[in-house]
């Protein structure tokens, strides 16, 4: 089997390694079949799509809607590398699934309006499939409404014409979309479990997702409802596109 590629951008080793472990767990792949590249650590090596089954993108610290002057050199490089990669991915309709940062990568590439209108605190929410989502193979086995972990400073306010909305929620209308038939992005985190999001809450406690006095409330918020279905999206993607 040709391997899948996981593109990661977290500079903190503990959440970065845990993220990789969660992708391995939910996809059912092993380390030979899910190769990780940490883009924050250095320039992206040449990516040969013909040598891959598909691409995953994890979450990350970068916001596409940040003012250009405030973006670090690393963020600007990573965004340019994603833009160049997505030129080929979208043109070929190559299997791609971006989790959370997929909104900032695929959305920005396709001309979505991304801002802080629909930012969500770290929590568990209910997500609902659209009519198109009910017919999409990645969501076919999920219930019409399912729970998911979220926590983001920006979101898509206006979806581009090239995208098909697959899932939505009251607090954030664009929770999952597809471009073409095989390029996906989610605003929620399909790769997370309670332990994983707890690690991130502690790792990013000073990154502006919540105030210092809100730590305990945030830890409680991710336990208020069980999250049981979203990992199936990663498993289905891996099974569907393995070649």
TrEMBL record:
<protein>
    <submittedName>
        <fullName>Glutamine amidotransferase</fullName>
    </submittedName>
</protein>
<dbReference type="InterPro" id="IPR017926">
    <property type="entry name" value="GATASE"/>
</dbReference>
<dbReference type="Pfam" id="PF00117">
    <property type="entry name" value="GATase"/>
</dbReference>
<dbReference type="InterPro" id="IPR029062">
    <property type="entry name" value="Class_I_gatase-like"/>
</dbReference>
<keyword id="KW-0808">Transferase</keyword>
<keyword id="KW-0315">Glutamine amidotransferase</keyword>
<dbReference type="GO" id="GO:0005829">
    <property type="term" value="C:cytosol"/>
</dbReference>
<dbReference type="InterPro" id="IPR044992">
    <property type="entry name" value="ChyE-like"/>
</dbReference>
<feature type="domain" description="Glutamine amidotransferase">
    <location>
        <begin position="49"/>
        <end position="192"/>
    </location>
</feature>
<dbReference type="GO" id="GO:0016740">
    <property type="term" value="F:transferase activity"/>
</dbReference>
